[in-house]
Amino acid sequence: MLESRSAATLGSIGSLSIAHERVEYVFGPYRLDPSRELLKFGSKVIPLPIRLFALLHALIKADGNLVTRETLSSLIWPEGGMDESNLSQHIYMLRQILGESAREHQFIITVHGKGFRFAAPVTVLNGVHANGSPVNRAPMTASGPENPLHAGYDAFASYSRGTELLERPNAANLALAIEQFNAALGIDGAFAPALVGLARAFALKAQYGYAPGNWVLPQALDAIGRALAIAPSSPAAHAVNARVTLLALWDWEAAKNAIDTAMSLNEASPLVHAAASFLHECAGDYTNASIELQHALVLAPYSFNLQFVLGRLLFFAQDYERGAAHFSHLLEKDPTFQPARAYRAECYVLTGRLQDALAELYPPERYSKEDLALRLPLLCRTYADAGNKKAAEATYEQLVEASRTSFVSCGCLALCAIALERYEEALDYLKRALASREPSLLLMRNSPWFARVSSSEQFVRVLGDVKRRR
User: Fold this and answer.
1) What single DSSP character describes residue 128?
2) Burial of 63: CB neighbours in 10 Å, binned 0-12, 13-18, 19+
């Protein structure tokens, strides 16, 4: 226990330096890196004075055990001069930095009259402790929080329905999935699989442009942070954390680390391989994206969602003929799944099959209100390519009008502007998308719709900003 260790455990405390450990500690949405003396929240580095860093480090290293006030005094203030109010003030500041409310101490618990205890589950990454011994991760158990049956039948039933809805991620199904996951959490608020599902649903709403990323992605971050705090050894939680981190924070390194952790916990998870495929897709590496997706499909060959992702990969790899055939196969299984119909229409437009594209986009009743962002930019481009500029402009105005009362991404508005050769307007929309960190920009450089402005100096600058912010 920490109480039996000397002050030298933390290195040269006299100069308040922290011993360099070849490990990182992950708790909730945070990552503590002792070797670089950094505390990170996604891509954001949270500045910590050295005493607060040493205090947090000491509490985490106690592995859930009580750390007495006397121990903290000798470790953090070896030169003396620490009184009760000084320590209490530092604990208060640390809680403020970690975002703890006055009533809910998620991370630090006060044991009155004795000391403090770090309450959140901690995952140790990078494989080696400071003394050279290997890190042993706790295995999943049948009764553990990662097991879907852990919360009882009613919660599991809601979780199962939500997971099934995620197989066909359109606007209506994602909304229903969120209801089901919340129903499961209403029964058991610490049901980790439901939190993972909730984070997936929010992330997919942002990814497919059904809701503003700056609204739903913080909810995804909150849900996955809670899931990781409850089940730090869940490969599904780490896999979804990778997707959410990339979409919300554009932090490529943190997303890659989350995938590596998920792979180390379970390489036989289709969800893990699907998340890895998404990261490669965002990077424009379709070879490795396809390899990872194939691994996922071998493990879950009947997954409708994974088959849909395969079609999307064919589209971004510019294999439009096979892409159209693949989406046709999906629509035979489910004619109501409009995202597949919209992607097939895109394949038709890009191969010059404009009449086929128009047939996909009419009647408008096929598409939900939320699918305006799928339908109208495609319709605008189809009319423009067919030489019907008047209809294309009317479609653009319809989308602009819709954006005044409903969410329409700036990326979709930019697509219409490009179709009408209004390149300055398109670049202005892209700058606004960059300012609000729209998730769609992560795939922007891979989209054939931006080919007409790809050589523009302003477009290259926007794309460079996206890469840098990663």
Assistant:
1) B
2) exposed
What is the distance between the alpha carbons of residues 274 and 295, in angstroms, rounded to a whole number?
8
Q: pLDDT tens-digit profile of 350-377? A: 999 999 999 999 888 888 877 877 789 9
Length of the chain: 470
Residue with tokens 């005044």: 404
DSSP 134: B
Model confidence pLDDT, tens digit, residues 265-305: 888 889 999 999 999 998 888 899 999 999 999 889 889 99
Radius of gyration of the chain from its Cα atoms, rounded to whole angstroms:
25
Domain ranges of the chain: 2-125, 163-319+399-469, 320-398
- Predicted structure pTM score: 0.68
The answer to whether the 163-319+399-469 and 320-398 domains have the same CATH topology is yes
Residue 222 to residue 218: CA distance in whole angstroms: 6
Domain formed by 2-125, architecture: Orthogonal Bundle (1.10)
In this structure, CATH architecture of domain 320-398: Alpha Horseshoe (1.25)
Name the class of domain 163-319+399-469.
mainly alpha
Chain mean pLDDT for the chain: 83
- Spell out where 271-421 has E strands: none
376-425 pLDDT, tens digit each: 999 999 999 999 999 999 999 999 998 988 889 888 999 899 999 998 89
In three-state secondary structure terms, 103 is: coil
From residue 98, alpha-carbon distances to 95, 101, 122, 254 in Å are: 5, 9, 14, 18
Lookup result for tokens 């066909």: 168
Answer yes or no: are the C-beta atoms of 307 and 334 closer than 8 Å: no
Q: Residues 132-155: pLDDT tens digits? A: 444 444 333 334 555 555 567 788
Q: Which value, to the nearest 10 degrees, does the dihedral of the CA atoms of residues 230, 234, 238, 243 take?
A: -100
